[in-house]
Each structure stands twice: as structure tokens, then as C-alpha cells.
């Protein structure tokens, strides 16, 4: 499993800046590559609107 970014994402980039695995990419909303994500939770802690959760 991997972390998931919900539709509430405002694409602020806070999660992408802190991901130690480089698993987050840009798009209309940011997306997490499940092949790279280790579910460390760093992205969820950095998200100012709490739109990242375990899938």
C-alpha cells in the first residue's frame, strides 16, 4: 500500500519537498507513486490541509 493524496489537494508542493523517496509527482493534484512510497508519513505531516492518508 501507499499513501494517497485526496481530491482536496491544492497542489502547494509541501509534500513533494519533504518526501525522502521522491515518490510524489505534480499534476492537477499531486500523486504518489506506490512503487516508491514506503508509507513513512512525512508527506502527511507536511500537508497543511491534511489531504494525505493511507490508502
Notable traits:
55 residues, alpha+beta, Alpha-Beta Plaits, two-stranded antiparallel ribbon, 2 helices, 4 strands, globular
Q: At CATH's second level, what is the architecture?
A: 2-Layer Sandwich
At the third CATH level, what is the topology name? Alpha-Beta Plaits
Beta-strand proportion: 15-25%
Structural class, please? Answer: alpha+beta
Distance between the termini: 6 Å
Describe what is shown at a glance:
With 55 residues, the protein is an alpha+beta fold. Helix content is 18%, strand content 18%.
Descriptive account of the structure:
The structure is a single chain. The chain has a single domain, classed as Alpha-Beta Plaits (2-Layer Sandwich). Helix content is 18%, strand content 18%. The chain has 2 helices and 4 strands, in the order E-H-E-E-H-E. The strands form 2 sheets. A two-stranded antiparallel sheet has the order 1-4. Strands 2-3 form a two-stranded antiparallel sheet. The longest helix has 5 residues. The chain starts with a strand and ends with a strand. The model has no long low-confidence stretch (mean pLDDT 95).
Write the layout of secondary structure elements.
Blueprint: E1 3-5, H1 14-18, E2 24-25, E3 31-32, H2 42-46, E4 52-54
Antiparallel strand pairs: 1-4, 2-3
